[in-house]
Amino acid sequence: MSDNRPERAPATRGGGEVDRPSTDHLAGPKVRDSLIPAPLQGFGVTFAQIFRKVTTEQYPFEPKVTKPRYHGRHVLNRHPDGLEKCVGCELCAWACPADAIYVEGGDNTEEARYSPGERYGAVYQINYLRCIFCGLCIEACPTRSLTMSNDFELADDNRQDLIYTKEQLMAPLLPGMEQPPHPMRLGDDEKDYYLRVPGSSAAEPVRAEQV
Ligand code: SF4
Ligand code: SF4
After folding, report:
1. Which of 176, 169, 190 is nearest to 72 (CA)?
2. CA 104, CA 89: separation in Å to the nearest integer?
3. Which atom, in ligand 2's list, is nearest to the CA of 105?
4. Whose CA is closest to atom 3 on ligand 2?
5. Residues whose CB falls within 8 Å of the CB of residue 142, separated by 6 or more in sequence, listed in order
6. Cα 130 to averaged position of ligand 1 atoms, centre (Å)
7. Using alpha carbons only, what angle is made at residue 203 by residues 189 and 87, rounded to the nearest 5 degrees?
8. Rounded average pLDDT per 10-residue block, the chain, 211 residues
9. Alpha carbon distance 75, 193 (integer Å)
């Protein structure tokens, strides 16, 4: 059975010029103007690599040094007297797109004080099976308690050990710091802690980088 449909005319621009599809892609490879045969040019590239500096990393025998602002394992920081900066507000957990942070706040008392102010982070966990190291949690933290270190060695062979607890995340006690709970040493309330002048207290010696 014959097809009686009329053949479509090629598209034209104004003035009758016909628009035809480009056939450049059907042309063969361009010939390079060189007196050296192509196989020798190929071996030349290989030969040149022999004298280049080797870039193989010797990790873990030579520790890898990251960029200063690399996003690695989190740290929960302390005030200069050892009290915790975390106030258990959960803003970091709400900001986390991967639902990797779990926080339970607790009430400070005069007998057992872990942070300046009313509340502290009683339970704090980060699930490194979920974390994508985006840094949104540290942006959300109002007290600069939560920061990220350059430590990237987080691999393990079981799921449980990749849920880091508060004890694992807390910054170590530096000289002059005291293990909480203890009373506030740098002021009468939390505002004194956040507005203080570095070095204004015996519990906060001025370090070289602050001078
Ligand atoms: S770095 Fe990103 S994914 Fe990881 S805990 Fe913080 S907000 Fe969540
Ligand atoms: S780390 Fe910061 S944002 Fe998270 S609960 Fe503690 S104070 Fe709040």
Report:
1. 169
2. 8
3. 5
4. 141
5. 87, 89, 91
6. 8
7. 40
8. 50 55 67 82 91 89 92 96 96 98 96 96 98 98 96 95 98 95 93 79 50 36
9. 19
CA of 93 to the centre of ligand 2 (A): 8
- State whether the beta carbon of 133 lies less than 6 angstroms from ligand 1: yes
Give nearest CA residue, ligand 2 atom 7: 86
Q: How long, in residues, is the chain? A: 211
CB atoms within 10 A of CB 195: 8
Strands (E), the chain: 74-76, 101-107, 119-127, 146-148, 163-165
**From atom 4 of ligand 1, which residue's Cα is the shortest distance away?**
131
Structural domains for the chain? 74-194 (3.30.70.3270)
Residue nearest to atom 7 of ligand 1 (CA): 96
pLDDT of residue 10: 52
What does the alpha-carbon distance between residue 123 and residue 106 come to, in Å, rounded to a whole number? 8
Which letter does DSSP use for residue 150 in this model? S
Beta bridge partners of 142: none
Is 87:117 a contact under the CB 8 Å cutoff?
A: yes
Ligand 2 and 89: CB distance under 6 A: yes
Which residue's alpha carbon is at the smallest distance from atom 2 of ligand 1?
134
Is 103:124 a contact under the CB 8 Å cutoff?
A: yes
Q: What is the pTM of this model?
A: 0.73
